[in-house]
Design brief:
CATH class of the largest domain: Alpha Beta
Number of strands: 14
Order of helices and strands: EEHEHEEEHEEHHHEEEHEHEEH
Radius of gyration: 22 Å
Number of domains: 2
Shape: elongated
Distance between the termini: 65 Å
């Protein structure tokens, strides 16, 4: 498995997935490997690319349009599903007006015509540029962020007696998974605020720094076994300063379907979570949401009774 590594000079090597037909893939990957800080990993089909995207910590994807079992848009849509923050380069001789650009949606996509005389020379530059730009755009937000924040605002956290319940819950999570830290966090507009945290003195993190910004965009439990080998987080100084090595996060989903927070297990060493453990963490997240909803219902009933 290719990972972000450092060369003898200490320069971070960033893994780029190159997807093309077998007779053209070598030229594409060579153009990437010629760049000092980029390392190519190859796939010659949509199926192979999907496997890499699901397993490899790639920092960018370069894909042709015509592939043996589909199109580059299939690859780009897979990127959007698994890692929407990862940018893509569509490297093709198909004119832009013949490509359904609406399919790009929120995924960052750069177009480069492979028929240009110096296309392969430009490819490394374009890839580096889109990687750097994607790192500067702050953090990704859900498409319905305003609705999500409106749902979150309905929970008057300061008025809800939840602190002791969540402290017990995070104690249980840490013990169950044998991890150093477990927390319940609500994802506000610009930061994640921790309602309870076992094993760490964490009050809040900016959304640029917290892994939960990425985890909340996933339908399933998100696991990062080793942050140092994941290009999305390997340069995050805040996480490094906290000593965080592994992460697992599950969505707290309100009854209207909006994700308002995360229940997470993190550790100071590399960790693997199997399917059963991921399901158990999701159960804990649902338990946290149930606690919030129950307290909110009781508070609403009391307020209604007081007005009568």
């Amino acid at each position: 498995m290719s990972k972000a590594t450092t060369d003898d000079a200490g320069t971070l090597s960033r893994t780029v997935l190159c997807v093309d037909k077998s007779d053209r893939i070598d030229a594409v990957s060579e153009a990437i490997d010629d760049e000092e800080t980029l390392t190519a990993v190859e796939a010659t089909s949509v199926e192979a690319a999907t496997e890499v995207i699901a397993e490899e910590p790639v920092i960018c994807v370069i894909t042709a349009y015509d592939l043996v079992d589909g199109s580059g848009m299939d690859v780009i849509n897979t990127v959007r599903e698994h890692a929407p923050q990862v940018p893509s380069v569509l490297f093709t001789d198909l004119p832009p007006n013949e490509i359904d650009t609406a399919s790009f949606e929120e995924t960052m996509v750069e177009y480069l015509n492979r028929d240009l005389p110096d296309a392969h020379d430009r490819l490394g530059f374009v890839t580096n540029d889109i990687i750097e730009h994607s790192a500067q755009v702050g953090f990704l937000r859900p498409d319905d962020e305003e609705k999500r924040l409106a749902t979150l605002s309905e929970y008057d956290i300061e008025e809800l007696p939840i602190e002791e319940s969540f402290e017990r819950l995070t104690d249980l999570i840490a013990s169950h998974f044998d991890v150093g830290v477990a927390f319940v966090g609500l994802i506000e507009e610009d930061e994640e605020n921790f309602l309870a945290c076992h094993g760490g003195d964490f009050d809040s993190l900016t959304r640029e720094d917290t892994i939960c910004t990425h985890s909340m965009l996933q339908d399933n439990v998100m696991v990062v076994e080793n942050i140092a080998t994941d290009s999305r987080f390997s340069k995050n100084e805040q996480l490094e300063n906290l000593g965080i090595v592994s992460y697992a996060g599950a969505n707290m989903t309100a009854p209207d379907g909006q994700v308002i927070g995360q229940v997470c297990a993190i550790d100071f060493e590399e960790r693997h979570y199997d399917a059963e453990e991921r399901a158990e963490l999701q159960d804990f997240a649902e338990m946290a949401m149930e606690i919030l909803d129950l307290r909110q219902s009781l508070r609403s009933a009391r307020n209604k009774g007081a007005k009568q």
